[in-house]
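Retry 2 of 3 after timeout on previous attempt. Resubmitting structure tokens to design endpoint.
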């Protein structure tokens, strides 16, 4: 299978300064938000639908915990009522001495690596507000330089060309053009305009202070527990996007891709105009 990754074309200025700056700030923010968020999640490793967790009723959609089975401690992850043995990965992990102990996630997946909810919350809230500020900077900058309307906002022709672009990616025929392809546009639009704002909104909805100031947010997301579940699902979507994004960078030519996100300049296919 052959990659369509010509490197005989001209260098074009593809990534503006605001785009590059906010991209790298987001990398840092999302790293600390993910690991500190998992630290916070360990305090109650369950997800529910509704305003509150069930006591006399069952509204749980996910649970990660530990249980004894025939005298042996094991990790159990339950999704929509179906349980899975996740010993060694989730619920019960192996420590440095080779012993199994109850813990939702391994230490390398959380900040701090040990159980410390207070520190996890401090780290999470700091980088959450840094993410919000960076998102606002990107939005204003992208409206001023028209990056959002010209290169991110999908148009009719992008949707029409999407099936072919998906097929090219599936065959690893990766193109280098001056502008984003249909799949890139739709993916970036979904992350920047839908997922990240929803992450912020659902995060705020979990705050009692926010609930007192704007109680309508609870109705908007169907309750605090539903907002927490949506927040968690969006986190998983970001992780999947990150993995695919890194894979595409490696397959498309990491030196060329990294150069474009550091200096702004990218070498494109064929005879693209170097405007």
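Retry 2 succeeded. Sequence:
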């Amino acid at each position: 299978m052959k990659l369509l990754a010509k490197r005989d074309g001209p260098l074009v200025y593809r990534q503006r300064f605001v785009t590059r700056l906010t991209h790298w700030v987001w990398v840092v923010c999302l790293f600390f938000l993910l690991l500190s968020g998992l630290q916070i999640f360990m305090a109650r490793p369950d997800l529910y639908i509704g305003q509150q967790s069930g006591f006399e009723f069952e509204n749980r959609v996910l649970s990660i915990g530990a249980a004894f089975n025939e005298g042996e401690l094991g990790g159990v992850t339950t999704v929509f009522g179906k349980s899975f043995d996740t010993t060694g990965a989730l619920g019960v992990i192996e420590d440095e001495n080779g012993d199994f102990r109850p813990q939702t996630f391994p230490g390398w997946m959380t900040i701090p690596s040990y159980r410390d909810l207070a520190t996890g919350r401090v780290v999470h809230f700091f980088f959450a507000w840094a993410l919000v500020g960076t998102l606002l900077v990107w939005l204003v900058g992208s409206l001023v330089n028209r990056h959002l309307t010209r290169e991110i906002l999908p148009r009719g022709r992008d949707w029409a060309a999407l099936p072919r672009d998906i097929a090219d990616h599936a065959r690893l025929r990766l193109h280098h053009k001056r502008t984003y392809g249909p799949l890139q546009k739709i993916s970036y639009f979904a992350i920047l305009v839908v997922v990240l704002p929803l992450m912020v909104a659902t995060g705020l909805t979990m705050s009692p202070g926010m609930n007192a100031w704007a109680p309508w947010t609870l109705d908007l997301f169907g309750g605090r527990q539903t907002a927490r579940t949506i927040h968690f699902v969006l986190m998983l979507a970001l992780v999947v996007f990150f993995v695919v994004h890194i894979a595409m960078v490696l397959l498309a030519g990491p030196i060329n891709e990294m150069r474009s996100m550091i200096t702004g300049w990218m070498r494109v296919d064929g005879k693209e105009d170097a405007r």
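Attempt log closed. The first helix runs from residue 17 to 41.
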